[in-house]
Structure formats: structure tokens, C-alpha cells
Design goal:
homodimer, mainly alpha
């Protein structure tokens, strides 16, 4: 990483003065570090750099850039060069590029690619058939496969040939498939190395293959690979036809992407694909304004609720001083519960069918936590000198509000998941808004009970 | 996963009636699925099962169980059997077990392990020297290494021998090291397969090795592996002595663990290691009560702030009806900003040195978003019939509060990171509490300005 900072200025200098030296300078630097450097350049500088590099080196950098940058660079370097670079990209990264481009740009680029590298163009069409977050879109279509009639030794030779082929990303598994591409089994390179070379491959292979369909969501794919510690996961269609493999490095990228989405959703932002500083000001506004307005409109009901207790508040103004404290405490306990349940659902520790166990547990948590806070609360009420009735009111309300917060905060993600949406969408602020309104209703109803005498006296005195 | 549900009941039945059949039933099931099944058993049933299995099969299951379960099971199956199982566990999982056990239990188990498997006991002492979330604790000490004097063909033979050795988890890299364990270079098995067998290994290897020190935090390790798409990362000490390797599957576990921590922290819960249902009720209370109390005490200041404006509120009760709406809107915009910045910091897109760019941007976002909401807000004020002065008050306050929310929400994570803590600790509810108090101050000060005339009139009329 230090490297990236070091070569940044030097690179800019070379670009300006001796552009023909670029390729040799970059030979020794990891493509990831180069991509970091390119990210710091402006679009014109980056385009100048890509033009100077051999297409395969340019592809190594280009496929690591965020989508927004890729789109800008396509404009700058033109379809012809982009197509040549795309031809050298990994199949899955290439498919991502086409999915990210505006449709007309993508179509024109595909036309150019068909002339430059027809095989790559075909792969793009194959992969982009599937939704962008599905296994089909994520897979690589180049792998080492052998017929079931070969021996272990012959399979090892196939691996050697695969190792020499730059288009094959993963050579640590050999896939045994029929001539009709029906997947029969898998052998790891490790098993091949210790197998008797003359043994039939069908005796060495594992037949009980764990695979996914191309429609499987990428999050489910990542979970399976993480669970079974696999380096690659085969993708087969409903008929058992072998379509491609998903490699572990893609899984890691998916996990990072999904986590970013979850954190954004939890914060009440529509997920943003590009890095923070690569996202334009107005895109950011668009991703935020929607939810923020929905939450705002939800919060307007707190005003409606408070107006409903107009008489009570006018009689005892002190009541209103506790409102923010009470409702935000409900919100806080709710976000604790929801973050526990949302994460539990994400990693598969909690299932929607567990709802009653969760309900029972969270309501219990709420009562205990409510009791703890109500002791602190009562102390503070006495210190403010609002008297024992208010102390009782705040104490009781806290127990109800915290228990309510925990219940709503834990149930809402389960309900949202059950309805088929991402539970992280029941973002913390959304739950908090709901609890705010409920909290006000709880508070003033408890107040009417406990302060009945005080309120009656206040009403008797004309303003 | 369907499998786990299927074999659960059958397994219970066998355990009770024909325990000697257990081992054969489980032969065909993936250890991960077995661990799922064991998780559903109670401690006694799980102990009975582990006692029935050969130690290496038991180890495959045991190392996948959450820490709390492991601790219970150690008690149930005794030190002798646990030590035998631990002897068969992967070095890093074994070290985790010892770190998770209470100190006296761990010490007794280590004594037993020294008798059963002295080499494993030594490895435990080697790995547990390092902090639990460090590279040293995560590494495997068994790998394929060769001297710099060998040829590529001899190195390939070393890989073959490694492939047959169950203690070596990763055979896809060969490490070239001196007799004194100084790491000189790395060769991937792929490169070995295509290299000329008679070529000296020093000509095939990559010398520019990316490595970490044993003290490196696991989060940084995971980020490096994700960035460079590596299957294994070597760990070397300050003198370049080769200590072990970290494999990609551990990285995936680390990522999941760190993500869980982040989501919990964002929800204002102290991170919980064990799965939700494996965590006891009172552990959960302990992890929640602390933060919830801190936030509660923080929110008490909203009461103090409101009391400060006692006169104003008593003059115009309507003012208090807007308090929850305004402060929670500030909180919502703040949590949007903080979730964007916290995630940006986590993936390295945002650095603390970018603070002024973030400040500039987020303040701008706040003003624009505030304008949007203030249009909705003004409309609602007019509909409630609170008049043009109130409309102006709410409109202006919203702009200030949302801009303030975005500013605080984005700066706080940067400040916390700068102070050396996890930015996710500036959890959403924490930021919201801070903004609540600031919001009240903004609101009533704007109110005093805009409603000066109204307030003066109200003061002139005695209650």
C-alpha cells in the first residue's frame, strides 16, 4: 500500500514526460496497487495510462476499478480499446462491466467485442442472462474438466495444461463431466497428487457434489462457500448440466458488498455500490432523500399523537420534558434487538420459524432492561424534584416502553424477512420511528392513570 | 442443510438405542452438517455422541461448535477425551479452544494434552502467546516448505508428500525458506506444475512476498487477503523468520465475525461471540445494559435542555409537539452519514485524513436534505393550522438540524477512529442521543428568534 503512494506522483510525471516508459515501471507492481493509483488519477490521466499499457495489463487494472470509473473511462478510451481490454478480463468481471454500463453503451460495446473477440462476447451474453446478484452472473465458464473415462494420471495432465492457460482462474479442482456436460463428480488437485496415476478418475472423485443453480442469490452462494470451506463451487442447471464455477475470491468480494449493503440499510440509506468519494453528490442525495422523507412522514405522527394529549400536556407541562428521553430509550432498546436479530438472520443462526422463541426472549430482555433503566430514571426524577407520582410514572413507562421496543425491534426483521424482503431494510431509524409513536401512546396512557388526581386538580383551576 | 434436519431425529434415536451404529451413519455427512445437528442436541446427547466417535471425526465436529458449547462439552466428556480430540483439531481451532476456556480449565486441559500429544501442546503454547484477534493466533504452523537449493521437481515432490499429510491444511503454495526458517520466496502449485522440473526453485519463486507479522490484527489480515485474492498469507516476525500461514477459509470466518461485531456495535450492543440462541439470557443482558444505560444517561440531558426552555414551552405549548419530530429527524440524517462513513472506513475507501472533504460534503448533503424535508414540514405545519411563523420556525430548524445531524454523524466516526477505537462504536443510537440534545438547543434558539413577538405577548398575559 505504501507502494501506491510512492508511485503515484512518479507515474503522473512519466505520463506527462516519458509515456513510453510506463509499461516497464508497472511490471513489478501488483494490479491491486495499480488500481489504487489509477483511482487517484483523474479520468484523462487514467485514460492516457490505459492507452499506454498492453491490453492484458490494462485489463488487470480496469476490472478492479469501481463501476462509475469504468463507465467514465469507456467514454474516454473508446469502444475499440475497451473491447480489447474487455477481451482480456476475467469472464465474471467482464459480465459485471456490461451490466453496469447504460444499455445503449453496453450494446455498442458488445457489437465491437463481437468483432474483436467473439468468444468473449458470447460469454458476456451467457453470463448477463442471469440477474446481477445471482450465481450465474458470478461464475467463471473456464475450468479444468475431464471425461469419466480418464485415469487419475490423465486428469493430472489436464490440470497441467489448465495451469498453463491464463483464461482458467482456478486449477485446484478437476470436474468430471460427460460429453454432454453433465457433472458427475469433483476431484481436488490434492487428491489427484496422492492418487494412483492408473486409477480410474471415477474411483477417485467425490460424487456427492455440493452445487448451486445459476439463479441462486450471491449471498446464499457466499454462505455455502464459507460454511463448507470450499475454494470453488460448481454451478449446474436444473438438469445437472455443468455451467461454470464460482471461486472463493469472488465470494469474499460478495461478502464485502453484502455487508456494505447491510450497514447502509441499517443506517437508513439505500445501498450505494461505488466507493463513498466515487459517488456523486446528487446520487448520494437520491439514495438518502427517499428513506429520510419516509421516516420524516412517519415521525409526523408523533406530532399527531402529542396533539391528541393536548389537554394533559397543557395541564402538566412537565410531562413533555420526558418525551424525548422515553421515546429514544424505546428506540435504543429496539435497535439493540433488531441488530441482534438482523445479524442472526444474516448468518443463519436465527430463522423466521423461531419467532416465538425470539418473542419470548426479547420481551423478557425488555422487562429486565426496563427495570434497570427505571431505577436510574426514578433517581433522576426525584433529583429534578418532580415528586413520587412522576417517579412512578417514569418507572412504569420505561418498563413498558423498553419491553415494547425490544418486541417491535425483534419482530419487525422477522416479519420483513417472512414477506421476502431483506431484513436489514427494517433499518434502525425505521424501527425507532415506529417505537417513538407507540412510546408516546404508552406514556400518556400511563400518565392518565397515575396522574389522574393531579390532572383533575389542574383541570379544575381555570387558565 | 436438508440433510441436517433429516438426520437429527434419526441420530437421537440411534444414540438411545444402538449407539454402536453411530460412527457408520455419520461417515457420509459433511462435518459442517454434523456440527449443525450437534448444535440441536442438548449437552448430554452431544457428549454421548462425541464419546462414540473416533477422535478425528469428533475433532471435525468439535472445532466447528461455538465457544460456549465447547466449554460445556469439556466438562461433560472430561479432560482425557477432550485432549485426544484437541490433538486432532487444526492448530488454529485448537488455539481458539484454549483461549475460550476459563484459565484454570485451560491449564488442566493443557497438562493432559502434554501427555497425550506433546507436539500439539507445544503448538497451543506457540499460538496462544499472541492476542486472540491477531495473525499469530490465526495461523497454521504446518505447511509445505523447501530449502532454496532444491529444484522445481523436488519441490513438487514435497507438495505430494504434503498432500498425504493430514496435518497440512494448505498445499497450494510452497514456501522457500533457509534452514534457519528465513522466508525467501513463494511458489504456487500452479507455477510448479508448469515449471521445468530441473529449474532451480529460486528461479521459479516470487521473492516479493506479501506477509504479515503475528501481531497484525485479524481484520487487517482479512483485508489484505481479500485485496490481493490470496489463498494463504505467510506470517513472519520482525526478523523475517517464517512462523506460519493463514488460509483463506479462516479469513472468511474472520470477515463474518468482524461483520457481526460491526452490526452489533451499530445497534448499540457490545459484540456477542456465540450464536444468538447459544448466548444465555443474562450474558445478553450484560452486553446490552451497559450501552443502554450510557445512552439513557445521555438522553437525560434532553430533559435538562427542555427544562431550560420552561418559560417558552409554558407560553406556547405547541412548541413541544414538534420536539420528537425534529430531534429524530436529526438523528436519522446523522445515522445515514455515520453508516456511510463507518463503512467507508471499514473497507478503506475513506481515511481519517479525508475529514475536511467529508465535512464539506456532508454539511452540503445536510443542507440539501434539510431543504427537502423542510418543504414537507412546512406543508404539514400549515395543515395543522399553526400559522406562518411556526412554518418558518420548523422550516429553518429542519435545515439546521439535518445539517448538524449529517456533520456530527460523519465527524464522530472519524474522531473515534483517530483516537484509536473502532468507529462502529460510535453506534447509531449514540450519535442520535448526541443530536437529540443539540437539536433541542437549535430548535428553541431559533424559536426565540422567530417567535419573539408571540412569546412577548404570551408573557404579557398572566396565567
Amino acid at each position: 500500500m505504501r507502494l501506491a503512494h510512492l508511485i503515484g506522483p512518479e507515474l503522473r510525471d512519466l505520463l506527462r514526460n516519458e509515456p513510453e516508459e510506463i509499461a516497464s515501471l508497472l511490471d513489478e507492481v501488483h494490479p491491486e496497487d495499480l488500481a489504487d493509483v489509477v483511482l487517484d488519477l483523474d479520468d484523462d490521466e487514467a485514460a492516457a495510462l490505459l492507452k499506454r499499457l498492453p491490453a492484458d495489463d490494462a485489463a488487470d487494472i480496469f476490472e478492479r476499478l469501481p463501476e462509475g470509473r469504468q463507465e467514465n473511462l469507456v467514454e474516454k478510451i473508446g469502444f475499440q480499446l475497451t473491447a480489447r481490454i474487455a477481451g482480456e478480463m476475467a469472464a465474471d468481471d467482464r459480465a459485471d462491466l456490461f451490466s453496469a454500463l447504460p444499455e445503449d453503451v453496453g450494446d455498442q460495446l458488445l457489437e465491437t467485442l463481437e468483432k474483436v473477440d467473439p468468444e468473449a462476447a458470447e460469454e458476456v451474453e451467457e453470463l448477463t442472462r442471469w440477474p446481477e446478484t445471482s450465481a450465474g452472473h458470478l461464475m467463471n465458464t473456464q475450468y479444468v474438466s475431464v471425461l469419466p473415462s480418464v485415469t487419475a494420471g490423465e486428469a493430472l495432465d489436464a490440470v497441467r495444461r489448465g495451469a498453463a492457460d491464463d483464461d482458467i482462474e482456478m486449477i485446484y479442482y478437476v470436474y468430471v463431466a460427460t460429453a454432454e456436460e453433465k457433472l458427475l463428480g469433483i476431484v481436488s488437485l490434492r487428491q489427484l497428487l496422492i492418487a494412483n496415476p492408473s486409477a480410474p478418475i471415477t474411483e477417485v472423485m467425490i460424487e456427492n457434489v455440493i452445487s448451486v443453480t445459476p439463479e441462486t442469490d450471491q449471498e446464499a452462494v457466499a454462505k455455502m462457500m464459507a460454511k463448507y470451506d470450499m475454494q470453488a463451487l460448481p454451478v449446474t442447471d436444473a438438469n445437472g448440466t455443468f455451467l461454470g464455477i464460482i471461486t472463493v475470491d469472488d465470494t469474499i468480494d460478495v461478502m464485502t458488498e453484502e455487508q456494505t449493503e447491510d450497514v447502509h440499510r441499517l443506517g437508513g440509506v439505500q445501498p450505494i455500490d461505488d466507493p463513498y468519494f466515487e459517488t456523486t453528490f446528487w446520487t448520494l442525495i437520491k439514495k438518502r432523500a427517499g428513506w429520510l422523507s419516509v421516516l420524516f412522514i412517519g415521525e409526523l405522527f408523533t406530532g399527531t399523537a402529542l396533539r391528541h394529549y393536548d389537554d394533559v400536556i397543557k395541564s402538566v407541562a412537565t410531562l413533555s420534558y420526558y418525551v424525548p428521553l422515553l421515546i429514544s430509550t424505546g428506540g435504543n432498546s429496539g435497535s439493540q434487538s433488531s441488530s441482534l436479530i438482523i445479524r442472526g438472520l444474516a448468518v443463519g443462526e436465527v430463522k423466521t420459524s423461531d419467532w416465538w422463541r425470539v418473542l419470548y426472549r426479547e420481551a423478557g430482555q425488555g422487562v429486565v432492561l426496563g427495570l434497570v433503566l427505571s431505577m436510574v430514571g426514578i433517581l433522576r426524577v426525584m433529583m429534578w424534584g418532580d415528586g413520587p407520582r412522576f417517579a412512578a410514572l417514569i418507572g412504569v413507562t420505561l418498563i413498558f416502553i423498553v419491553a415494547g421496543g425490544c418486541t417491535i425491534g425483534s419482530m419487525l426483521p422477522l416479519i420483513i424477512k417472512r414477506l421476502g424482503f431483506d431484513p436489514a431494510t427494517s433499518s434502525t431509524p425505521f424501527i425507532a420511528s415506529l417505537i417513538d409513536v407507540v412510546g408516546i401512546l404508552i406514556y400518556f396512557n400511563v400518565a392518565k392513570l397515575i396522574l389522574a388526581q393531579v390532572l383533575a386538580q389542574a383541570a379544575a383551576v381555570p387558565h
